Amino acid sequence: MRLAFFADLHANRQAFEACLKRLRKIGFDRAVVLGDLVGYGADPSWTVDTVQRLVDDGGVAVLGNHDEAALRGGTGHMHAQARAAIEWTHHQLDDAQRAFLAGLPLTVEDEDRLYVHANAWAPGNWGYITGARAATQSLAATRQRVTFCGHMHEPALYHTRPGGLDAGHFTPRSDFPIPLAPTLRWLAIPGSVGQPRDGNPAACCGWMDTERNTLTCLRVPYDHEAASARILRAGLPPGFAARLGEGR
User: Fold this and answer.
1) Residues in domain Calcineurin-like phosphoesterase (predicted)?
2) What's the CA gap between 237 and 6, in Å, rounded?
């Protein structure tokens, strides 16, 4: 089976369409969406509807912190600009779209894999995998061999032996299949579709071949200028538009 991974879409239609096109050309059997469908970007309705179609076709999606916030219309824990975008997003979604978000689980276990937006030790508290110690803590909190997370917006791959101390870490190369050795436990962050933050504006996504036990991360160029223009036309904070071209 081929699994396609999308994380942190953030209502960026241009980036999500580019990733879908690339992965459909490769071919996949099931989509896995690792949360934060909305927030920052100008196309929340289209994004939610597209993810719902993927789920209807047998895919999986989990709840992200921006999705949760959009249901309430904002949260005091967010900075002012993010809160403004979430409040705008809340009013863009209809009842059915909000109901879809409200029904998303925090985690999904799929054979030897765990899908979660933030981490496995406290999925609803939205703590970040900021390094090897946090990755090890997350791996220790689940029995699954491979954990797939979003939330960090930068591609990363961690690995450790069962019962091991701090996990090893490296940044995966685009289009390079990585064997997920069965003697190790893995935590994979495919990076953000809609808002990469590693200095590279190209959208991030990835796919796993479960028979060959390989993971391939991808960087997909897209029309970030068009996505930025849509943000500005929507009246969202200009900083959200500017950062797309910077990969920040």
Assistant:
1) 1-211
2) 24
Write the DSSP symbol of residue 10: T
Q: What sign for the dihedral angle of Cα 62, 8, 143, 125?
A: negative
Cα angle 247, 23, 38 (rounded to 5 degrees) comes to: 50
| Buried/exposed code over 142-153 (b: 16+ C-beta within 10 A; e: otherwise) | bebbbbbbbbbb
Give the dihedral of Cα atoms 133, 78, 206, 116; nearest 10 deg: 60
* CATH numbers and ranges of domains, the chain: 2-246 (3.60.21.10)
pLDDT single digits (tens) 96-147: 999 999 999 999 999 999 999 999 999 999 999 999 999 999 999 999 999 9
